[in-house]
Amino acid sequence: DSTNIVSPVLSVITSIDYDHQQYLGNTLTEIAKEKAGILKKDIPALIAPQAEEAEKVIQEVAEKVQAPLIWLDTSQINALAIKDGYWEFDFSTEKENYKALKTGLRAYYQVITSALVVKAVEILNQQGFSISKQNIREGLEKTTWPGRLELIKLKEFDLLFDGAHNPQGTKTLADFLVSWLKERNYSQKTLIFSVMKDKELPKMASLLFPLFDSVILLNQKDTRAIDFRQMDGKILNLAKQYFIVESVDEALKLAKIQAVKESLVVASGSLHLVGSIKQHLKNNQKPYQEKSYGL
């Protein structure tokens, strides 16, 4: 794939979990073997913490192709939750002590990702690049990622986008919400949800649906998407109450009807869903928001 048509100066593998099984395989061992395909002879590879079976595969492939591995040492991270889902952290490496770095993206897992970035920059600097500590600090703090725990304020409710579309991403979203909602005073919490047929809906639904007062299930006009009208009632009944709709417009209108003074709407389950809602808002709300959010 595209990761293998270049000659890298550094390879990076983030934490591996189940996704795109139709292409990568149905076990972590199979998926890790595909991911480890980016390892090259004599090219350093920076690796995030992995499940035991994934770590074993990466080690084996690295030995076979003679790629030197560098594992991220998360024991050297000291993180503190600050405001609105963001984090500040210290990180010590063999060369530097980084103090009070701030994440530009919400949720704790971005601390791990940010530390991976810091370590990657150090390795690049050893190869002749010139990226300063201030560059690192500003880069992390100014990072934006449309559709990833992205919060915008509409007239009727706050709208949180998250493109989580597998169990790992959904668990990360659910963990974030449980913590983040403690500092918010939402009286009504609604989920707009859609998902593709090849995803693990039972796991995703069990993690997300119980967190909301209402779940709006959107049947996307895509042959790959699940039709909730044909869903097992056991899955649907994980929601306190649910509604099945056929369009983004209908989903947002229903969310507005349900909204009270302090309401949150979360859109998740599919990047396609996030993109469709963003496009609908762009087409129907002027101005959309003070930032373009990638549109």
Which segments are poorly predicted (pLDDT under 50) over 5 or more consecutive residues? 20-25, 290-295
Distance between the termini: 27 Å
Give the strand order of the largest sheet, numbering strands 1, 2, ... along the chain: 7-8-12-9-10-11
One letter per element, helices H and strands E, the order comes to EHHEHEEEEHHEEHEHEHEHEH
Number of helices, where a helix is a run of at least 4 consecutive DSSP H or I residues:
10
> What's the total number of strands?
12
Mean pLDDT: 90
How does this model look, in words?
It is a single chain. It is globular, with a radius of gyration of 21 Å. It has a six-stranded mixed beta sheet. It has a three-stranded parallel beta sheet with strand order 1-2-3, covered by helices on one side. Strands 4-5-6 form a three-stranded antiparallel beta sheet. The chain has ten helices and twelve strands. The protein has helices at residues 21-24, 28-35, 52-65, 109-126, 133-141, 167-180, 201-208, 233-236, 248-258, 271-284, and strands at residues 11-13, 45-47, 69-71, 77-81, 87-92, 97-102, 148-153, 158-162, 188-193, 214-218, 242-245, 263-268. Strand 9 (188-193), helix 7 (201-208) and strand 10 (214-218) form a beta-alpha-beta unit. Helix content is 35%, strand content 20%. It is α/β, with parallel strands linked by helices and 295 residues long. It starts with 10 loop residues before the first strand and ends in an 11-residue tail after the last helix.
